[in-house]
Amino acid sequence: MTSLQYRHAVSEDLDALVKLEDRCFTEDRISRRSFRRFLDMPRDRLIVALDGEELVGYCLVLMSAATRLARIYSIAVSPSERGRNIGEQLVRHAEAAAVEAGRIVMRLEVREDNTPAIRLYQRLGYRQFGTYRDYYEDHGTALRFERRILFYAPSREFPAVPYYPQTTEFSCGPAALIMAMATLDEQQPMTTLEELKLWREATTIFMLAGHGGCGPHGLALAAWHRGFHASAYISKEGALFKDTVRNDDKKRVLELVHEGFLHDIGQTGIELHHDPLTLDGMQAALHDGRIPVILISTWQLNRSRVPHWVTVCAIDDQFVYLHDPEIDTEIGETVADKQYLPIDRRVFDRMSRYGKNQPLQAAVIVGPKRDSSATN
């Protein structure tokens, strides 16, 4: 038994690929014409496993032109070669090729009755996120799995940002602020009690339904009161989030809270800018050791138009890396899914605007402690 080799397929592999396909599948086969097209498509990747001169496996990965997604379209291993860990290695090589192409997430479909394959994907960290009914030629059901494959490699260029998950559905702002402050002060509490204290200080009282969220004015004040330098960038003047409530009495409450925030900010050294914070500004802040906390619309993440606070940890030529404090355990998310989450710069530009008409852009930049006695 010779050692296995893995490489990108070439046109000379066409006959062997068709032969392997016919050996492995009786339905949903990839045709010779399709294999030839995939071999000629520079955007996609076709990885093959070789035992000596014999082609014993392949993994076909499709790369979306419009998104940062990659998808394992088909994977096959010769029946006589199973048990040699070829399938797992093909997946890993496919992920590496997708990362090299700048893809963030790998997706795939697998028959719901293919228990060995499902176990393999789960062991590799894939989680189910959907179902396709009547997906295969025999009308079988496919389960949809995905895994984040691109991760930020920490460097000395930016400070390391610790992660803290929000513990309530309404405290994303305090959780994001905690992460920023804890980056700059190792003594900063990272507890639910601190999270709730921050929410009480920074809440706008009303927003959408349920408990009120936090606005940039309140978050900046909360950071200042804990001795940190703080500045806020807000593209609109006046009370924020008024269009999220319909009741006139609630609108008046929002206005009064806003007036209170402005009064309190006037008693501090907080810099208040009525301009949006640019990506260059965020990157400059990070280089200076200051941490941006940004208001986003979650539409780009989960198709929900909800205002949400995140912490910006790093920026490079391709991505903005976020700590997202919200973990949805019901769909299998873990802390690893929400740390240094890479967002395409163009997507982030759209994400960092909340609302349809004259969208709001808001950010709080937390700077180092002013001095040990600064608490006002």
Chain-wise SSE layout:
Blueprint: E1 4-8, H1 14-24, H2 32-40, E2 45-51, E3 54-63, E4 69-77, H3 86-100, E5 105-111, H4 115-123, E6 127-132, E7 142-148, H5 172-184, H6 192-202, H7 216-225, E8 228-234, H8 248-266, E9 271-273, H9 279-287, E10 291-297, H10 299-302, E11 307-315, E12 319-323, H11 335-338, E13 341-344, H12 345-351, E14 362-369
Parallel strand pairs: 4-5, 8-9
Antiparallel strand pairs: 1-2, 2-3, 3-4, 5-7, 6-7, 8-14, 10-11, 10-14, 11-12, 12-13
Helix pairs in contact: 1-2, 5-6, 6-7, 7-8
How would you characterize the overall build of this protein?
This protein is an alpha+beta fold and 376 residues long. The chain contains twelve helices and 14 strands. A hairpin with a 5-residue loop joins strand 3 and strand 4 (69-77). Helix 5 packs across helix 6 and helix 7 (216-225) runs parallel beside helix 8. It is elongated, with a radius of gyration of 25 Å. The protein starts with a strand and ends in a 7-residue tail after the last strand. One of its GO terms (molecular function) is protein-N-terminal-alanine acetyltransferase activity.
